[in-house]
Structure prediction request, 76 residues.
Amino acid sequence: MRSHATISGSELLLGAIAFRLAMLVLVGWSLTLLPRQTHDAEAACFPSTRREAMAASNPVGTRVADTAFDDMLRHD
Prediction:
């Protein structure tokens, strides 16, 4: 009596799909069960006050920026 020990292509494909599905479930549950990281309301790299934010976003003088903006509007 002979037994066929080889695996067919469809059995191999179904095994690979089942393995991937099991890994996705395992990763999903591990991410669900991990504690969430707390985030500060304000990141350390951003300026803390509105005045600092305005100063950082406007490195050129307001006069120069307004003049450049007016010139740009005139040429449109």
